[in-house]
UniProtKB/TrEMBL annotation:
InterPro entries in alphabetical order: Rhs_assc_core, T6SS_VgrG/RHS, TEN-like_YD-shell, YD
Database matches in Pfam families: TEN_YD-shell
UniProt KW Repeat keyword: yes
Protein name: Teneurin-like YD-shell domain-containing protein
Organism encoding this protein: Polyangium fumosum
Repeat among keywords: yes
Amino acid sequence: MRSMRPRGRIILFERDALGRVVRELQGSHVVERRYDARGLVAEVSSSLGFDGAFLRDDMGELDAISLGTGVDRWRTSITRDVAGLEAERRLPGGIAVRTRRDRIGRVAETSMLDGTDELRRVAYTWEPGSLLKERDDSRRGLTRYFHDQRARLTAAAEPSGRVRWRRPTATGNIQPAIEGEPRTYKKGGALIAADGVKFEYDRDGNRAAKVWPDGRREKYTWNASGRLVGITKPDGKVVRFEYDALGRRVKKISDAEERVWVWDGDVPLHELSTSEGPIAWVFEPGTFTLAAKVQGLRRWAIVTDQVGAPCAVFDEWGGVAWQGEVDVYGKAAAEGEKTAVPWRFPGQYEDVETGLYYNRFRYYDPEMGAYVSKDPIGLLGGLGAYVYVEDPLAWLDPLGLYPIDKITRQTRALSEQEIYDHFWDRHASELLGRRAMKGHDLDRVRAIVDHLRQSNQTFYHQLGRSPVIGHFATFQGRKAAVFFFRDGDYVGQVASAFFLKKHQIANIVRKMSRCGP
C-alpha cells in the first residue's frame, strides 16, 4: 500500500504473508515491527536508533519491556496476579509499583516504593457500576467524586476545598458552575459563549475564532479534510500543523521551534525538534498507555493512573523526575517541568503554544472540557458531537472518535480454575460445538478465548439483563465472539463465547459501527 501527501511525503507499508505491517516508511524514516508466534508485537525498531522488545508470558500478557542492547539495555518487568492483571511493576533503580485490586479486578491501591520506603500511595474507593467515589493520594490528599443517575461525572471535591463542577446537560455538554452565567451552546452542541469568551464556527462546525471580552481574537484555519492546520494568536503569531495521508500529525511549526513526529501505528514513536534532542515515546503494544521516555542516552519509566494518564516519572537511578495528576478536565498539576511529559488523558498531547490537546483525529480544549470540532464519525461516536467522555475517571477517547470503557475493558487470561469453576459447564461445549471433555479440551478452549479477548474489535451488548462487552475475531477461519460482564458481581468474567452464524455476524458488525468502543 502506498499513499502520498499533497506535498509529496510518501508512506509505504510492507506486509508479511499474513497481511501484518512489518515495515513502514514515513518520508525518510523507517519503523519496523516483528511479531511472535501468536501474532503479537515482539519488537519495534526504527532508523532513528530505537530498539524495543516486548516480552510476554505463556498467556500472551506483557511480561517485560526492554530498550536498547548490550550493557546499556533498560528493562522494566511486570508481575501479574492469578487473574492475569498487573500486580507489580519493577522499574530500573530499584523502584517497585505495586497494585492491589478489589475482588472484581478494579484498582484499589497503587504504591510506589523505593525498597521499603513508600514514595507515594494512591487508594481508590469504588461505587456500584464502577464509579470512582474517592481517590486518596498520600501526596495530594483526598478527592471525592460525584456522579448523576446516568453515571456521568458531575463534580470533584479537591483536597484544597475547591469543588470543580462538570455538570452535563441532557446531551453531555458541560456546565462548570452552579452560580454565575451559564455556558451557551448552539443547536448541535457547539459552545458559543463561556465566561465572557465567545466562539465562532465555520459551516462544517469547526471552531473558527475565539474572541475575548477585550476584543482579542484567535483565528483557526482548517483544511478540506477537516484538519486543523493553523492557529493565529491574538499577537499575530501563527502555529501551523501538517498531517500525513493517514491523518496523523507529523509537524508543528511555531515562532519558537519546529517539531516532527514519526509514528508507530496510532501512537507517536519519535518526536524531533529544533530546540531539544530527539525523544522516543514507548507505549505498551496495542494500547495508549505510556511506559517510558527515551532521550539520547537517558531513559525514564512512566507510571500511569487508573485510566492511563501519566502520574509519575522515574529516572534510571530511581529518582523522581516528575509527578503529577490530571483533573476532571484533563489539566495537569505537576511537580517538575510540565512539558517533560506533555501527555494528559490517554492519547492527548498538550500543545503549550495553543493550550489545546492533540487527540489524533481532533483537538481537545481542556479549559472548556470539549472538542473544538465535530466528531468526524458523526452519531457513530455518540449524541454529543463535541463531548469528550461522560466520566473521564473510567472512560477514555484516545482517538477523538468514540469513548472506551477503561475499567471494565480489562479482560484478561482465564486461569484453569476459573475455566472449570465458572466457564466450563455453561460455555465450553457451546464454544466447541460439541460436548467438551475436561482435561482433553482445556487447552483448545483456553486458546480460543485468549485469541478472542485480545481483539480490538469490540462492541457493547445485552445478554438477558446483563450489560456485556463483546470481543469479535476470526479463529481458524471462523468468526467468533467472547462476552465479558461489564457490571455487577461478575464484572470482568466471561458471560458467553461461541462461534457465530451469518445473521449474528451481521448484527455484531452493525453494533460495532454504531458504538465502538
